[in-house]
Write a structure and sequence with these properties.
Length: 241
């Protein structure tokens, strides 16, 4: 049965369009006054990054967090992103008064860098975040604030809810849970599994997955997982990722 499904999968790729190179997603930055107006018109929240030219952690934030495709995509869809230099004398107007970037940084309580200030669409402050945060956690913070979860629960409660929700995700026609994704750095699949090598993706079929429909695997292969070499499908409860 496994060999039959593998044959069908191989045939299906004859009619599957080639993968296109995924477009690079980058965080788009607005000037202060333009960003404030954009937020009002779009009703998006504002993420205000306060930095200095000498700040090493600010550069790391730019390189590893704002350049992260998931972070950049979420920011683009839900926020207006603005940067100001905490040591700049450049002037602009904010809420009817004129400030330098340095004065505004002080006004928002920035005492270390980076400091990230989150504002509502009307420029009222929600909260601020000090220091460097890893991309995965930063994205959760963006969602917690961007989707107004902060109005109903604490951040720790939000994280618990997200974790429980992720363990209940099922995919495919047979509703099999995704147990693990193997990257190209992982070891080769264990003996006894059937492996389908097509292009950049290897499908690993365990015996329990033989009753899964062909469309399920087509969906997986169309998903375009970045740099993923092996996708493991298991008929076991989700317990790792």
């Amino acid at each position: 049965m496994s060999l039959f499904i593998l044959s069908l999968l191989a045939l299906s790729f004859m009619f599957t369009p080639d993968d296109k190179t995924e477009k690079k997603v980058e965080t788009s930055w607005s000037s202060f006054e333009e960003g404030i107006e954009q937020a009002k018109k779009s009703n998006k929240k504002i993420m205000l990054d306060i930095y200095t030219d000498w700040c090493g952690w600010c550069k790391k934030l730019d390189k590893e967090v704002y350049a992260n495709k998931d972070v950049a995509k979420y920011l683009g869809n839900n926020y207006v992103s603005i940067k100001i230099n905490a040591e700049s004398s450049k002037k602009f107007k904010f809420k009817g008064k004129e400030y330098t970037e340095a004065q505004l940084a002080q006004g928002f309580g920035a005492t270390g860098y980076p400091t990230i200030v989150f504002l509502k669409a009307d420029s009222d402050m929600i909260t601020k975040l000090g220091g460097y945060v890893e991309p995965e956690r930063f994205l959760k913070i963006l969602k917690f604030l961007g989707e107004d979860h902060y109005e109903k629960m604490k951040f720790e409660e939000f994280l618990d809810k997200e974790e429980k929700s992720s363990k209940k995700k099922y995919v495919g026609q047979a509703f099999l849970p995704v147990r693990r994704v193997r990257t190209e750095k992982d070891s080769m699949p264990a003996a006894g599994r059937s492996v389908l090598q097509l292009g950049k993706i290897s499908m690993i079929l365990q015996s329990g997955a033989c009753n899964v429909g062909l469309n399920f695997f087509r969906q997986l292969l169309h998903a375009r997982f970045a740099k993923v070499q092996h996708f493991v499908v298991a008929d076991l409860p989700f317990d790792e990722f």
